[in-house]
Design brief:
Radius of gyration: 26 Å
Structural class: alpha/beta
Shape: globular
Strand content: 15-25%
Distance between the termini: 56 Å
Largest sheet: 5 strands, parallel
Helix content: 40-55%
Length: 634
């Protein structure tokens, strides 16, 4: 197709070591990046020329420090323009960068720094600096901490840290000698696709994290195959919402840079909805949980609106649903009457809805990282938000498959395979992958690499799935499948995803493995639940009392019954506990990507879980005439 060829011609497909410098020659004073300055209360642009200048300054500064070819440096920060300067400055001289989640603990960063023998660590704000400084004595190779945020207060005994602007000035003071210039040119000339670009430590839902090695060749191939199917251009505006440490955001952002698209850097995750309304992105990658929150917000708006507002929004979304589910998703033409009806709604009610979200310029929105519920996917398309569902892993440099414009996309699929990715299915329908975007292995972990990549080069994903009519469908993480004591297999993530669609559920963890029935640990949406309690005259002294109140248990029981009515009897939740405290990263219950560490949750709530089944046994043994007053039994 002509537009695909045109877009491919537009992409700058040069090596990442030279990308920003080459784009600066093309775009000059045009904005490459933008970020909100909280002091000035406005978004400030950074031109391609400024971007390239800062990247080159970092390259020279690192050379003056004596950073070697393929040496590892680390960036421990939230999303900031400076993280790009360091990354691309490092790439320019064949240095490997290791992004570390801004919320990582001292123990986590100590492991990574020591495993990768990092000498130079860049940190973002006060929280990251404090954690980094606390591990200086146990980070065996660490020589210097470079701080992005000038407002960070350094420890009085700190003699190893320097602020980023001083780092650049000090290392470049007095100009550049000929040796540095020559070294820079030589490294630029020697840059190749086999070089290691990043080491991304997976957050790990079980066990110690592993460093996934990513090469420049993987990135180059990833850009090629994604550019071939996604309608991107230099006119797009990206909102960088997920952490750059996440391969989804990192690869997605880099793809946008190759196209010349503007990257709006969301500095604080909690501000994403505000950022959407201010920058009006055309594209933004996100995980399903984000869209679940958007979906819940729209339902709440409908619930709190007038009868007429509820009716109009409901009718508009219903028409949008019919257009997408029955026609557009199947590649069929929409009947004229329905098309005209949708056009009317799309220019009024649905347009207003998108404008409220800040998505009136929507192009498309990649979504991956977990299963997307049919309700959320249908809602997005009904609202005119082109959600492109995909599947990928850190080890595959993100995209393995995605919905492709112009081709049918079945509700529940994760799209079609990108070019040159090979797939087959192993034992238990495990997805096996092979191709140029697949990692060469885990850093300094030969045994784990051999476990994951077999002798024929197939990477074992741990995900079960199947192909149907050219589309890939996921079943479940194989290791997450539970087998009840009755021999029935349970897919916990599928049940959990149903629960958190309801706005009164914030988090949910299913318990079923080797148990007689399914139970659940549920974290309510506390603010909404407290409002509900007040509106219904339910008295409570604290959250503990609220979570055990009979009327609240009944309220959740009814909602669970509604949510799981399409599940098989053996999959349905029979008992549950409402928890007065959320799962957190600080307690080790969540990874940095907010995935639940089941083992830790089960350990922390072992007593409560055991009590569920003890009480169930007692209830089963009780005489039939006895009444069971356990309020959370279903």
């Amino acid at each position: 197709m002509f537009w695909l060829k045109k877009l491919h011609d537009m992409q700058n497909n040069c090596h990442l070591s030279k990308l920003i410098l080459e784009q600066a020659k093309k775009y000059g004073d045009r904005a490459a990046l933008s970020y909100r300055d909280y002091a000035q209360k406005k978004w400030l642009p950074i031109s391609w020329k400024q971007f390239a200048l800062n990247v080159q300054k970092v390259s020279y500064a690192l050379l003056r420090l004596g950073v070697k070819v393929q040496e590892n440096i680390a960036v421990f920060s939230q999303n900031k323009p400076e993280t790009h300067y360091v990354d691309f400055g490092a790439y320019g001289i064949r240095v490997v960068t290791i992004p570390i989640y801004a919320t990582s603990s001292a123990a986590q960063i100590t492991y990574m720094l020591n495993d990768a023998q990092v000498r130079f660590l860049f940190v973002g704000e006060q929280q990251q600096y404090d954690v980094a400084f606390s591990v200086i004595s146990v980070a065996r190779t660490l020589e210097k901490i470079i701080i992005f945020d000038r407002s960070v207060k350094k420890n009085d005994s700190d003699h190893l840290s320097v602020y980023f602007d001083d780092f650049l000035k000090e290392e470049l003071a007095g100009g550049l000698d000929d040796d540095i210039k020559a070294e820079y040119k030589q490294r630029q000339a020697d840059a190749n696709d086999d070089d290691l670009c990043n080491i991304l430590y997976t957050s790990g839902t079980t066990g110690q994290s592993k460093g996934v090695m990513l090469t420049y060749g993987q990135y180059r191939e990833g850009f090629r195959v994604n550019d071939a199917v996604l309608p991107l251009s230099e006119n797009d505006v990206f909102l960088n919402f997920l952490p750059y440490t996440h391969i989804f955001e990192r690869a997605w952002c880099y793809l946008g840079l190759t196209e010349g698209a503007l990257q709006c850097v969301n500095l604080r995750p909690a501000d994403v909805q505000r950022s959407m309304q201010e920058v009006h992105p055309t594209c933004m990658c996100a995980v399903p949980r984000f869209w679940e929150k958007v979906y819940q917000a729209v339902l709440e708006k409908m619930e709190n609106g007038t009868f007429l507002e509820r009716k109009l929004i409901s009718e508009a979304l219903e028409v949008g649903k019919r257009v997408w589910v029955n026609y557009k998703s199947k590649g069929k033409s929409v009947p004229l009457g329905l098309a005209l009806q949708y056009k009317l709604y799309d220019k009024t009610i649905i347009k207003l809805l998108r404008k409220t979200l800040g998505l009136e310029r929507a192009n498309f929105f990649p979504t991956a990282g977990a299963a997307v519920s049919p309700e959320v996917e249908t809602f997005a398309h009904a609202a005119g938000i082109n959600m492109v569902v995909g599947y990928g892993l850190t080890e595959s440099l993100a995209t393995v498959s995605c919905d492709i414009p112009g081709k049918p996309s079945t509700l529940g699929s994760v799209g079609r395979l990108i070019d040159k990715i090979e797939i087959k299915f192993g034992e238990n329908d495990e997805i096996l992958l092979r191709g140029k975007t697949i990692t060469p292995g885990y850093y300094k972990k030969d045994s784990q690499t051999k476990e994951a990549i077999d002798d024929e080069g197939w990477f074992h994903t741990g995900d079960a799935g199947y192909m149907k009519n050219g589309e890939l469908f996921l079943r479940e993480r194989i290791k997450d499948l539970f087998k009840t004591s009755n021999g029935k297999y349970i897919a916990p993530q599928m049940i959990e995803s149903k629960l958190v669609l309801d706005r009164y559920f914030d988090q949910a963890v299913i318990v079923a493995d080797k148990r007689k029935f399914v139970s659940a640990l549920i974290v309510p949406s506390y603010a909404l639940l407290e409002d509900y309690a007040r509106q219904h005259g339910i008295q409570f002294a604290n959250r503990e009392a609220l979570c055990t109140h009979p009327d609240i248990i009944k309220f959740y029981t009814e909602r669970i019954d509604t949510l799981q009515q399409d599940l098989a009897h053996y999959e349905q939740i029979k008992r549950f506990i409402l928890l007065p405290h959320p799962f957190t990263m600080e307690n080790g219950e969540l990874t940095n990507t907010l995935k639940v560490r089941r083992r830790m949750v089960y350990e922390h709530y072992a007593e409560q879980i055991e009590q569920i089944y003890v009480e169930a046994e007692a209830a089963a043994a009780a005489p039939k005439s006895s009444s069971n007053n356990n309020n959370n039994e279903k």
